[in-house]
Each structure stands twice: as C-alpha cells, then as structure tokens.
Write a structure and sequence with these properties.
By secondary structure, the protein is mainly β. The protein has helices spanning about 1-20, 135-145, 280-285; strands at about 45-55, 60-75, 80-90, 95-100, 105-115, 115-125, 160-175, 175-185, 200, 205-215, 220-230, 235, 240, 245-255, 260-270, 290-305, 310-320, 330-340, 345-355, 360-370. The strands form two sheets. The protein has a 16-stranded antiparallel barrel. Strands 9-12-13 form a three-stranded antiparallel sheet, with no helix packed on it.
C-alpha cells in the first residue's frame, strides 16, 4: 500500500516536469508517456482533431489540429511514446500557416529505490516541423503561440531538443509521501527567419520540483508541488540574451468515487523579466513573456453507462500584461464525452467555449484504440 501511494505522487511530479508552464483544460487525446508499477499497461493509439476559433478585440484567430499519439509498453516498467500533429492556423489580415509539427518521442522507466519509487525518462523533440518562416508567417506564428489562446499546437517547429528527467517519491507513512524531481532540456539551434542565414540558439533549461502528496481519506488525495525553472542565455548574431527564470506552485485535489472521479487544480506562476533589448525582443517574440499567471481548474468524469463516460471541465485563467499584450481574464468550460464503440475502441468528443477578455469556441472528435 505504501508503494502504491508513493507512485501516485510520481504521476503528479512527472507531469509537472513535462509541462511546468501550461495546464489547459483536459482533453481526451492525452497519452501520458509514463505509467507506474502495478498498472496494466496496453498499447494505445489516440487521435482527436480539434478546431478552435477566438474573437480577440474584433479580430478572428483560429487553428485546426490533427494530432496522433502512440503509447507502447515494452515491459511492465518500460514504456515508449510517440506524438506528432498537423496544424492549420489563420488570423484576419495575416498569412495563414499550416504544416506538420515536430514529432516527440519519449521513454520512461519505473523502478524501486528502497521504500520509495522512481521514474527515469528521456524525451526528444525531432525537427520534423517547419521552423524557418517568412516574415509574414513568423507574425502569424507569434500570435498563435500566445499561451492565453490555448491552441493545441502553438509552434510547428522548435528544432532538436532532448530532455532527460528523473523523479523520486517515498512514503513517510500510509497517508503522506514526499518527492523530488529534476529535468534538463538541451535545446538545439534554429533559423528563425528565411533569408537571415544566422541561427538562433535558445538556452538550455533546468527544471527542479519538490512536493507532498497526502491522503485525506481513502477516496481522496491532495498534492502540492513547487517548481523552479532556470533558463540559460539565448545566443543570436554573436550576442547573448538573458531570459528570466520562473517559479510555479501547484495544488491538486483528487476524489475517486467508484467509476467517477473529480480533480481540482490551482496554479500560480511568476517569471522574471528578460534582459533583452526592446527591438531584438520584439523580433524574437520575447516581448510577450507574461510575468504572472494563475488558474483554477476543475475536471470531473462520470460513468453514465457501461459504454458512456461524460467529462466536464471548467477553469478560470489570469495572465498579467506583457510588453506585447494587455492583461487577460478568461473563463473556459467544456464537455468531454467518451463512448465505447467496441472493446478497445472509444469515440472521443469535445465541445467548449471561452468568455472574458476574448471569446471563443472549440469542437473536436477522434478515436482512441487500445489493446
């Protein structure tokens, strides 16, 4: 029982390491590239096409994404995953942008260390997407990449990246576990604009996280983690540019009642200001860095029948003003149904909307196959 409880923290910790900057509304296309000992892993292939469109101060911004993700368990402790996606993005009066995004591969291995458990993982971003853009395409990419839109593929290409990570969790007693994690991302250089001939080399990133996982009662747990991200200096045209470090705190409450479950997540984050000349900052898109942001997200899954699961999600989001954009206050809501067509094959759906500083809708449909 202690080992299983420690593993519940590992899932929270590794997800924090995988994505310390975003927590969008949950989608049914998530293929987590890790699993913990004691689960029954299966091969899983998922695709969920999503169309999102927003009205931002009278201007329309949209994106259609067609992702495919594959998770393959090699052994009860070792798993592999692959994800790629196609996206078509557009905005009023701007050049449309479409193509394949970068592919991501990942491997994770779960093992025991004394009374605790650990997960070692490594992921790589393969430069299969388009990273060299014209000036007009870059302007569209800059807009689509803003986090407050929540587009599923904010960037087609980021160059070659590789990120090893490790997390470790140990139970202090039957109701409390602690954990630590670290990840280091090595980021390769890219050519940001067609015709400039000078590569832009983004700095490497170090991510550290620590947290607690407490069982409140048999059906519910509360997890708290703090994450610190340190960004190395970027290099372009022989000059170094310092980008600000970031810190985030996350609280996650989970309640499981038989086939139903509810999760509530709260997160606040702060990022230091980048030390970049204003002209260069605008050119590279660094002037859109959001100093402070926060969100409160609730997600529930209810089993309506043996073949139908209905999910519902709501969240409030706040983004402080950056040099490029005004303050944003947003509210999202979505219904996320899952219908089992036959054993191993599930039809996925999604319909939702956004209100506040900008307004939008999103619709999606796809399939999940497991064996």
């Amino acid at each position: 029982m202690k080992r299983r409880f420690a593993s519940s923290f590992l899932l929270v910790a590794v997800l924090a390491l995988a994505d310390s900057s975003r927590a969008q509304l949950p989608t049914s296309d998530s293929a987590t590239p890790i699993y913990t000992a004691g689960e029954t892993p299966s091969i899983q292939v998922t695709t969920l096409a999503i169309y999102q469109i927003y009205d931002d101060s009278g201007s329309s911004v949209s994106q259609l994404t067609l992702p495919v993700s594959v998770f393959v368990p090699v052994t009860p402790r070792l798993g592999l995953s692959l994800r790629t996606s196609y996206a078509a993005s557009d905005s009023d009066g701007m050049t449309s942008l479409s193509g394949l995004g970068d592919a991501q591969i990942a491997a994770s291995y779960n093992f025991d260390i004394g009374p605790g458990s650990a997960v070692a993982s490594a992921s790589a971003n393969l430069p299969s997407g388009e990273s060299t853009l014209t000036l007009d395409e870059a302007a569209t990419a800059f807009l689509i990449g803003q986090g407050f839109y929540g587009f599923r593929l904010p960037s087609l290409g980021q160059g070659f990246n590789v990120a090893p990570a490790v997390t470790w969790a140990v139970p202090l007693n039957t109701n409390l576990a602690v954990g630590l994690g670290a990840a280091y991302q090595v980021r390769g250089s890219v050519e940001p604009r067609t015709g400039f001939g000078e590569s832009y080399d983004p700095g490497d990133e170090l991510l550290l996280t620590a947290g607690l996982d407490a069982r409140v009662r048999e059906t519910s747990t509360v997890a708290l983690d703090v994450t610190y991200a340190r960004y190395g200096s970027d290099t372009w045209m022989g000059l170094d540019y310092s980008t600000g470090d970031a810190v985030a705190a996350t609280v996650l409450w989970t309640e499981v009642l038989g086939p139903h479950n509810v999760r509530v997540l709260g997160r606040v984050g702060h990022r230091q200001e980048s030390m970049v000349p204003p002209g260069t900052s605008a050119f590279l898109g660094l002037d859109a860095t959001v100093p402070n942001q926060g969100r409160l997200l609730g997600h529930a899954r209810f089993r309506v029948s043996p073949r139908l699961v209905m999910g519902a999600a709501t969240q409030g989001r706040y983004y402080s003003a950056s040099r490029a954009f005004e303050e944003r206050r947003l509210f999202d809501a979505a219904l996320i149904p899952e219908f089992e067509i036959m054993p191993g094959l599930t039809l996925l759906g999604r319909v939702g909307g956004t209100l506040g500083t900008l307004q939008g809708i999103e619709v999606g449909a796809g399939l999940s196959w497991s064996m």
